């Protein structure tokens, strides 16, 4: 089996998203498509999957040109795609999702759900997925939901399987499991196209690497290439992969949290009596496996959680009990872990998203009217300052790549007079060039004397940014340790083991 893309070009108005791209993928091969967010990787794969029609070029499978008028044609040709944002119905079971769009019927035209269940079990057993066909998808962890997407594609006998930024929403453990799944697919003869910007993942599983920059193929790389070499090829310039920072100049305790407990509406406790403080000019990084209370902690700091006990004081002012608007007005900047759900309004323009925190007064609103000229001037400045790649300030935020969406969120939050920055998963789904930039902005904020709380499941990021590290496990503080604590110690702490000398 061999898939070829020959001189594929895709335009959106004056923007050339793909410019005469050619590549070949063989059966039993993992071909990584590496590039920054906005480079055109996902657009190219959407052309391959029939979601977009190429303006020029052709797609050839086993020597035969394909005419793709929609995903149905791609599926019929044996091309499947696992999207970054899953295409599943949360209230349906696994079996119901797998048969959706490919329904088998039994007696009197009724849906043959038993056949779908059997298919799920067969594929799950073959690849060791351990997926229950009768489980409701919305109740499953993200990593298992991704396996459901893979089962759905394989149930349609895909010969080519495209993974579009598949690890953007996964924990490190789930990422390792996905890498093993890719190897199994390769061993079964499936052609795997892996779209990513994460260098470690590329070097771990790739047989071949094609690098795309600003819509063009700029070269092929060997999987043995160093991270520095791959990063430079992606971005087009040398990239600093380590965070450069001086020792912090510490001020007074600015954020003081005491005996904080956060529960949900059912009474389940997610944050259990934790206490810590962050000084002015310091980065306190919170480490831990996703789901150990990090989300609830950051939301409590912002006033987004209803069932909160304890105290959160910023510059001596109590924040518990205040509304979100009051917390923001107190000078708290918030980079949420899910930019699409909590950080942006996708249908709003970039300019409109940049004023969301300040839509009630100066400098963008006066006497109830938006000062359009001031807003547009500000938006143009931020697009240039933060290198947001978009046709213009009136582009809907939902049309941007993930990395550019994140830059809009960061630009908005850091453009206010801050007394505290809370950054949750600040570089999730972001390419190396954007990671470098966002890390620089976080350190610059810290160096300006602002206390910073960073929450990340990426241990590399925690170690790179932190002045101190607080590890959470099952909603409790395992310990607070220096940033130079060995990784193996941090790993043990993430399992709940408290090391000697750690501050509880």
Automatic annotation (TrEMBL):
GO terms for molecular function: ATP binding. Residues 3-239, 255-499 form the ABC transporter domain. Keywords: ATP-binding, Nucleotide-binding. Transmembrane segments: none annotated. This is ABC transporter ATP-binding protein. The lineage of its organism: Bacteria, Bacillati, Actinomycetota, Actinomycetes, Propionibacteriales.
């Amino acid at each position: 089996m061999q898939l070829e893309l020959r001189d594929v070009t895709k335009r959106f108005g004056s923007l050339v998203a793909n410019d005469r791209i050619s590549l070949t993928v063989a059966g039993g091969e993992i071909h990584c498509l590496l590039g920054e967010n906005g480079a055109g990787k996902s657009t190219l794969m959407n052309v391959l999957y029939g979601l977009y029609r190429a303006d020029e070029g052709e797609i050839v499978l086993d020597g035969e040109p394909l005419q793709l008028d929609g995903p149905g044609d791609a599926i019929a040709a044996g091309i499947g795609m696992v999207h970054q944002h899953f295409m599943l119905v949360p209230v349906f079971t696994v079996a119901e999702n797998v048969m959706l769009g490919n329904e088998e019927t039994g007696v009197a035209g009724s849906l043959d759900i038993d056949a779908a269940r059997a298919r799920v079990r067969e594929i799950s057993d073959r690849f060791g997925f351990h997926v229950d066909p009768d489980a409701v998808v919305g109740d499953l962890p993200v990593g298992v939901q991704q396996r459901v997407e893979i089962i759905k594609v394989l149930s349609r006998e895909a010969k080519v399987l495209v993974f579009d930024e598949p690890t953007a929403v996964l924990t490190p453990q789930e990422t390792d499991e996905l890498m093993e799944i890719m190897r199994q697919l390769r061993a079964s003869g499936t052609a795997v196209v892996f779209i990513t910007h994460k260098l470690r993942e590329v070097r771990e599983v790739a047989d071949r690497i094609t690098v795309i920059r600003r819509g063009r193929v700029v070269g092929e790389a060997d999987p043995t290439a160093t991270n520095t070499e791959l990063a430079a090829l992606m971005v087009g310039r040398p990239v600093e992969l380590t965070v450069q920072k001086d020792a912090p100049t510490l001020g007074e305790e600015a954020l003081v949290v005491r005996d904080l407990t956060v529960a949900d509406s059912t009474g389940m406790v997610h944050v259990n009596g934790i206490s810590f403080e962050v000084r002015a000019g310091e980065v306190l990084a919170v480490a831990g496996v996703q789901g150990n209370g990090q989300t609830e902690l950051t939301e409590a700091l912002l006033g987004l959680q209803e069932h909160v006990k304890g105290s959160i004081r910023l510059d001596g002012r109590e924040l518990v009990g205040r509304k979100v608007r009051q917390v923001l007005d107190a000078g708290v900047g918030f980079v949420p872990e899910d930019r699409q759900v909590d950080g942006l309004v996708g249908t709003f323009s970039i300019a409109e998203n940049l004023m969301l925190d300040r839509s009630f007064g100066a400098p963008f609103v006066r006497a109830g009217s938006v000062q359009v000229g001031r807003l547009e001037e500000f938006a143009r400045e931020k697009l240039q300052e933060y290198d947001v790649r978009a046709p213009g300030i009136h582009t809907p935020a939902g049309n941007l790549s993930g990395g550019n969406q994140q830059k809009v969120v960061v630009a908005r939050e850091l453009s206010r007079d801050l007394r505290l920055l809370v950054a949750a998963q600040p570089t999730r789904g972001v390419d190396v060039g954007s990671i470098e930039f966002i890390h620089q902005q976080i350190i610059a904020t810290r160096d300006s004397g602002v206390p910073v709380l960073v929450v990340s499941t990426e241990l590399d990021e925690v170690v790179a940014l932190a002045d101190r590290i607080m590890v959470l496990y099952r909603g409790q503080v395992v310990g607070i340790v220096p940033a130079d604590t060995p990784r193996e110690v941090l790993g043990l702490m993430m399992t709940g083991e408290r090391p000697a000398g750690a501050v509880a």
